[in-house]
Amino acid sequence: MKRIYLLLVLVSLLAMPAAWAQKKAKALDALTPAQSEELMAEAMRHYVQEEYDEAILIWEHLIQEVPKEASIFYYLGKSYLAQDKKNLAYQNAKEAHALSPFSLDYGLFYADLALELREYEEALVILKKLLAFDESQPEVNIRLAQAFLWTDKGDEALAALQKADAFIGDYPEIIRTKQFIYLKKKDVPAAFREGEHLLENIPEESLFSWDQMELLWDLVHGLEFKKLFEQVQNRFPDQGQIHLLQSKLFIEEKNLDSACVKIRLGAVDARVSPEVLGQLAIHAMELVKSKEDWEKAHAMVQDLTHIFPDEARFVALEGDLWISISKFQEAQTNYLQAARMGNPKFEVWARIVQLDFELNALDSAIVHCDEALHEFPTEGFLLFQKGFAQYLQAKNSEAIASFEKAIPLVKDTDGWFTQLYGLLGDAYHAKTRYVESDACFEKVLALKPDEEHVLNNYSYYLSLRKDKLDKAARMSKSLVDKFPDNGTYLDTYAWVLFQQKDFAGALTYMERALKDEKQNSATVWEHYGDALSQNNRIEDAVKAWKMAKTMDGTREILDKKIKMKRFIEN
Question: Residue 468: helix, strand or coil by DSSP?
Answer without folding.
Answer: coil
